[in-house]
Amino acid sequence: MALFGNAHTIDPATAQQDFARLLGQNEQVHAAYQLIRDTILFTDRRLILVDKQGITGKKVEYHSVPYRSITHFAVETAGTFDLDAELKIWVSGTALPIEKTFTKGVDIYEVQAILTQYVAK
Asked: By the 8 A CB rule, do 109 and 31 touch?
C-alpha cells in the first residue's frame, strides 16, 4: 500500500536520529509515519510534516505545527472496502485541513490519542 502514498508506522527512535537536526533541545519523537517520500512526526511539542519536493526529492519543506495551533481534528477509520484511515487537522488561521492517509495497518486510534494528549493541554 505504501506505493500509493499511504503512511505506515516507523520506529520513533529511528525518526529521532534521522531528524535530530529539526528537534529542539530535549524534544522527543513519540510517533512517526512514513509516506513514499514524506514523513509525519508527532513530538512532545509539535507536529512536523516533512515534505520532499520535486523529482529528486532534494528540496524539502519542513512544516512545524505547534499543538496549540490545532483547533480541531478528525479521524476516519478504515472500512471493509475503503482500506485506508484518514486524519484531518485544522490549524488556526486556515480554512482547509491538513489531510493525511494511513494504511489499514496503522492504529488510527493511537494517532488520535497522541493528538488528544497534546491538543488538550
From this structure: no
